[in-house]
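Hey, weird one. I pasted the LacI family DNA-binding transcriptional regulator sequence into the form twice and got a warning about non-standard characters only the second time. First submission, copied straight from the form history:
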Amino acid sequence: MPKHRPTIADIARRAGVSKVAVSYALNDRPGVSPATRATIKAIAQEIGWRPNSAARALTHARADTVGLALSRPARLLGVEPFFMELISGIETELSARGCALLLQVVTDPAQELEAYRRWWGEGRVDGVFVADVRSPDPRIEGVAELGMPAVVIGHPSAAGSLTPVWSDDSAALRDTLTYLSALGHRSVARVAGLPELTHTRLRDHAQHEISAELGLDAPVVVHTDYSGEEGAHATRQLISSRSRPTAVVYDNDIMAVAGLSVAQEMGLDVPGDLSLVAWDDSQLSRVVRPPLTALSRDIPAYGTHAARTLLTMVTEGAAPGFQDVTARLVPRGSTAPPRSAQTPPRSEQAAPPR
């Protein structure tokens, strides 16, 4: 067995054939007999030969790699469970199919599109995922023009001609607001994510529409960058306002945990004075006290479905869009009927006489 990385030349020497014949055999192309093909493949397995991905890319063979570029701060990716769970689901499907994920964090959507152009031009990927879709989003048309397989992790309304994999956020929000309304809440605010993201805008629209249908007060929506710091700041704003809401829905669990901490710091009882709901369940939501009511879904499965759709496009040329399961509301200790408006929260009650 050669001491260097095994090559086609090593196989050709062992089999007593030309390198062209070896190439034909290993790529299952006509030009060699079945017996010679079997001999060459047996020698390749014996000496541990593996195809060179760069060489395969140059000959337009599949790279067995798909790409994902994200224009979010790396510090947020490290603490936000959603993307870590999504990527774990993607990796589960890819590894089972002998594929790899090329992941890059970039500073803005323009850099994302440039990364996709470079990867596709260099033959480094067979397709890509497009996440955090914006309105408008030049990446959609740019990726479509490249003609490479691509899956949009987002609503079909923003996917253009690309294939979407999505979940119905409007239905999840309707379940949440209906539940809070049944508890007696009339003022429900939301600490939302980035305002330019399509799914944020869809949630904003759905919240105003559903609130009106249910007879709730017009909602106050505060947009943030999804970080715990901004989630805490938004919560302080809401709690300190003259028309303090009796319930708050957060667009991720990190902000919900930060909001719970702020509410307790400011002397409010959760859920007596303020009910809290986290969008996307996680271990964080379950270990705090009280545990957070949350919109729960199988995020790794969401990633798996996105990867499966993309790989189908790579191998078969096309794939239908996929609507994943709607997030399910899981009530826990952070939600309850609101106290009477005549009963002020502990922080506003008069101090006992000395």
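That's the output from the first submission. The warning seems to come from a hidden character in my clipboard, not from the data itself. Residues 341-354 have pLDDT under 50 and may be disordered.
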